Each structure stands twice: as structure tokens, then as C-alpha cells.
């Protein structure tokens, strides 16, 4: 169990440093975040992009002794950075100053990319004031309306990552509007199907309950009031979102109404991927780097 992001950073530093390949690193904010992680011994970066610009920013920020791989444009930078990971020369891929479509094209390239056979998905982690541990949520950023088979991949991705971080048997809430299975309400039917998949051994080990409403997932008292015997109520590790809107709204509510802090990574490839926004604060970037490092499982 991680109480907060300080715990995640602490454990990641103990396991590191991890080699991170940064695609299109010719950006001051990107290099600033990478330097912060490097300075605390979390990562050993490889900066891929326009070498002259990268070295200018490195000099400005006082960054030395870092491997730089020259690339003429963002397409070449994304390709070279991805190949470093594919060839085992780095463990984590990080998106720099490159268009998302260009970056993902390199990641999904059949010959040179990082395909694993599973669907790519997003997992966020939240430190919510007043809560006893870090809360994970998936998928709130990539898959809009996943099918049942896609949900199986998304859940598998998240469980493998959380287990790599050191949580052996995560408690999972397969969210829906209520606890009754109704064929007309897809979220309830799919939640029950995921529980049954787990019972058949088709999903990594966890304690999963669903369909389960948010009030029961968050409160053992609510579970008792409804007469529900739950092993996870009030102690959920992973909130599993049936559709992107649920996870997205849930995360933003925690951020804006609960003053939570967060981090996020992309899962489902052969290696963890960091694909943050330029608007992310230095804190978010550092937390995301630490989360990606731990999800490597080394």
C-alpha cells in the first residue's frame, strides 16, 4: 500500500535508476522534468531529438553527462526513442515535444513499435486528502466505450502494473450505477462478466466486485446499510471505469473538489509509456515518472 506519492517516489528510487528514452526532448519543460527525476537518482535519461537545441537547454539548466541521440524531426525522434526501448536499451518511453499522433504511430508500428497484443489503456493514480492510500483509476483517458473483451485487456493492464508496483492482491471496484445486473444497463452486465472471468482465472489475481455503485465502493457503512457483504467497500485500490466519461469525471472531481494530486501512465505496450500534457506541472510529471518506473516491476 502506498499512502501517498512520496511513498511511490521513495520505493522507485530504491529500485532505480531506470533508463528512460525521451522522444523529441528538445523542449525546456521536458528537460526540466527529466533533470528533476535524474537529480534524485530515479532515472538515467536518453534524450532523443534536435541535438543542438537539447544541448542548449541542458547547458541552461546545468545538466551534464547525459546521452543525446540526434534526430532531424519529431518523426525520426519518435522512431529512434521507441527503438531504444524495443531493443532493450531503455525500459520506459516518454513523450516529449512531439504530436501525439506521431508518437503513437511509432509506438504502434508493427515492426519497430512496442505492441504486446493487448489494448493500450490509461491508468491514473490519485492522492486524495483524507484517504489512507493512493487510489488508481482506469481507463479515464484513452478508450471511449470499450467492449467487454477490451475491458478485460484494460483491467489486465492495470492489474499487472499495480502488482509490479508491489500490491499483490489489488481490490477492484467494477463501477456501475447500482449492484443489480440489468441486461439493459451495459455497465452492470459487463461488470458481472469481469467478475466471472476472474473466477475462471482469465484475469490476474485480485479481489474484484461488481457491479458496484460508488457509494458502496467508498464506504463500508454504505455497504452494510444496503445489506451488501463486501470485501472491498471503503478499501478500494482500483476503480474500474465502464466508459471514459465515468473515469474522466471521477478523476476531475477528485482534483477540483478534493484537491487531489495525480499521475498517469499508458499501459498495454511491452513497456510503460509516459504521455503527459505540456500543461502538467513539474509535480505531476515527476509522480508519473515514478509511477512508470515502479510499473516496470524491477
UniProtKB/TrEMBL annotation:
This is Phosphate butyryltransferase Ptb. Belongs to the phosphate acetyltransferase and butyryltransferase family. It comes from Peptoclostridium litorale DSM 5388. Pfam families: PTA_PTB. The keyword Acyltransferase applies. One of its GO terms (molecular function) is phosphate butyryltransferase activity. PANTHER family: PHOSPHATE ACETYLTRANSFERASE. Its EC number is 2.3.1.19. Keywords: Acyltransferase, Transferase. InterPro entries: P_Ac_Bu_trans (IPR012147), Phos_Acetyltrans/Butyryltrans (IPR050500), PTA_PTB (IPR002505). The gene is ptb.
